[in-house]
Design a protein that fits this description.
InterPro entries: DUF397. This is DUF397 domain-containing protein. By secondary structure, this protein is an alpha+beta fold. It has a domain of 39 residues. The protein is 20% helix and 27% strand. The protein has a three-stranded antiparallel beta sheet. Strand 2 and strand 3 form a beta hairpin. The protein starts with 15 loop residues before the first strand and ends in a 6-residue tail after the last helix.
Length: 60
Amino acid sequence: MTWRKSTRSNGSGDCVEVADNLPGVVGLRDSKDPRGPILAFDPAAWSTFVAGVKHETFRN
């Protein structure tokens, strides 16, 4: 499992890391707690969420 952060992360350590190289699941974790809990998402749901963020779907 390989974890990565956004290229827009500022280096403060307050980041979400994603592992999208797993078969059938996308993992998310807090970079401050790498041994802590992992949230698991269906890859299709994750792709839909990322597309929504890119298109500002969630803005008020």
